[in-house]
Amino acid sequence: MVNVAVDIPGATNDRSVSENTLQDTHALQSSTRKSRQSSLHHRLTMNDTWIFILTNPATDQLVAANHAFYQILGFEQKTVIGRTTVELKLFADIHQRNVSLAKLQKEEIGDALATTIRSADGREKFCIETTELVHLQGQSYAATLLQLAVDSNMTLFAADDERFNKVFSSTPNIAIQGYSADGSIHYWNAASERLYGYSAEEAVGKNLVELIIPQEMRDVVRGMISAGAETGIMPPAAELMLQHKNGDSVPVYSSHVVVFLPEKPPEFYCIDVDLKTQWLREQRLGRITSLLLNLEQDAQKNFQRILDLCGELLGADCALYNRLDGDLLCLISGWNAPSDIQEQDDPQGHLCFDVISRKEDGVLCVRNLQNTIYSQTDPNVAKYGLQTYIGHPVRFGGKNQGSLCVVFTRDVEPTAEDLTILGLLASALAQEEERLQAHQELIERDQFEKVLIDHVLAGVALVDAETLKVEKINPAARAMLGLQEDQVIEDLCQKFFCSSDDGLCPLKDIGITVDNAECELQRADGKRLHVQKSVQRVKIQGKEKFVECFVDISSHKNIQKILQQERDLLERASVAGQVALWDWDVKHNILDWTSYIDS
Is residue 447 part of a domain? Predict the structure, then answer.
């Protein structure tokens, strides 16, 4: 068999389907169904060339196929993907194919059927068709396995068949165990040895349930085996967590099949696909998601948590986050960093500086560091005996300003998933930097506003528009009222700033606009203070507020009063002495005579 990755177009995640895995799994699970339930009168030998296709179960459009499909039937990939099996004239009996697909709506595994398929040149080939509904990458597909006939008089499946052992033993990624109805193991391939830690000598003769099934699942599995021996039906394939020799959990995609041979007791086969890689990926992504959902307000603590997780997930000797601050490359946070590491340095020659400065996006990976120019330009390479550097830029404020890196004292070739994780964590650092910068700008703005409000000569008060309670008041306003801050805060504004006697708020209840209006404030000593008042409506954190501003005009009012009094006295004196008084506006050449002259 050819081990080819079958990529599913339109898939919702990054998993791919191993053709080798699907062929071996579905061949054993479906082609060896209980013979007395099959309509076949002859059993066909299992050829080690199996044709496998994935189609849309509703339209039977081809989604993917293995190498054997193209090699044996002579089709070209570019001419078949997206076309239906009817258009390809693949199945001679279209009605039988439609019946097979219809059964998928009721049960996930169809019966093994004798059928005839056609190659690209129209030649017909006799085979066994088995179709199963599979769920891959969030979508459902009809997985069809076609086993070509070699000799219709030969036995379909024989435990002592040399080809059986050859096929099962040469599947390095698929663990296969053969066992009896009592659970006794009679077959254990090399992949099972690697997956579960038991050698074939240790496993054969032992009970499968007691060997690799966790304690809490054993009764269920024993019941499944008993039912399968009676009915020939085993539960559908599923993701399970089984058990290694050392007690560790082993994530697998497990399927079971029961085989009935003439004059022999039923034989069971378990096909386990190692999901450790996928499981580890999910665990890693789960830890990253949990971290991002539980970040704190303290950015520096978040930097450290991100670095801790980065070092652990990538198995590094050390993880560092460096940032350019002016003309210096500064260590912001580190995981397992040496105690004598230099925290600030000239950036030139440093690997991290090259990550920040390079025009290309993405990861910089340098292996065999001791044999590169960096052993001379980056002091850390020689000092700590570094062999591998993997760094990703941290971009915020529209440009690269930092680098997240992991370093190793051994040669390491990162996987694509490792690089993805490094990129995710670099993005998390960038978001924290953006948040930190925004927070700092907010603090600076608040400080500026506080200085401005506290030192302006006008009185300023912030009032809740709904409750009309005073929330903030500046020193100038407190001086005008002759009160301390705690004597005003949380009290009604009408008590201090409003001249309304009916208890209604001119702004809230009547809708009057107050702009440079003259009014009086009620001071603590009982006096009334003349002010010029303006009020603006604003929203703070989604809630409406009134910003009330007061300018003390009491001195101006007193001067106006004194001038009016003096003018009144002067006019009375001019009348008594028959003296004419006038004002001459020189600029406009206007004379303003007293009332005595007018009369």
Answer: no
If one counts every other C-beta atom within 10 angstroms of the C-beta of residue 166, the result is: 10
Question: Token pair of 532, please?
Answer: 């010029």
Total domains in the fold of the chain: 5
Q: Are 335 and 319 in contact (CB under 8 A)?
A: yes
Q: Cα(88)–Cα(563) distance, rounded to whole angstroms?
A: 108
- Give residue for tokens 């300023």: 460
Specify whether 592 is located in the same domain as 509.
no
Q: In a structure prediction context, what are the per-residue pLDDT tens digits for the chain, which is 599 residues long?
A: 223 333 444 433 333 333 443 333 333 333 333 332 232 222 223 334 578 888 998 899 998 888 888 888 999 988 899 999 999 999 988 888 888 888 777 765 566 676 788 899 888 887 778 888 887 767 888 888 887 754 333 333 433 455 555 555 656 667 889 999 999 999 998 889 999 999 999 999 999 999 999 999 999 999 999 998 888 888 888 889 999 999 999 999 888 888 776 678 888 988 888 888 788 888 888 899 999 899 888 888 999 999 999 999 999 999 999 999 989 999 999 999 999 999 999 999 999 999 999 877 789 999 999 999 999 999 999 999 999 999 999 999 889 999 999 999 999 999 888 999 999 999 999 999 998 888 777 777 777 666 666 667 788 888 888 888 888 888 888 888 888 888 888 888 777 777 666 667 777 666 667 777 777 777 888 788 888 888 888 888 788 888 888 888 777 777 777 877 777 776 776 666 666 666 676 777 776 665 554 44
Domain boundary, last residue among 223, 248, 274: 274
pTM of the model: 0.50
Considering the domain architecture, whether residues 267 and 173 belong to the same structural domain is answered as yes
What does 136-167 look like in DSSP terms, one character per residue? ETTEEEEEEEEEE-S-TTS-S--TT-HHHHHH
Residue 509, φ and ψ in degrees, nearest 5: -90, -30
Q: Alpha helices of 325-415 — where are they, by DSSP H?
A: 351-357, 374-377, 379-384
Enclosing H/E stretch for 485 = none
CATH number at residue 524: 3.30.450.20
The strand pair at 139-148 and 50-55 is best described as: antiparallel
Q: Residue 237 falls within a domain, yes or no?
A: yes
Q: For residue 329, give its domain range.
A: 291-439
Q: State the sign of the Cα–Cα–Cα–Cα dihedral 57, 61, 64, 69.
A: positive
The last residue of a domain, from among 111, 133, 156 = 156
Residue 444 lies in a domain: no
Within-domain flag for 548? yes
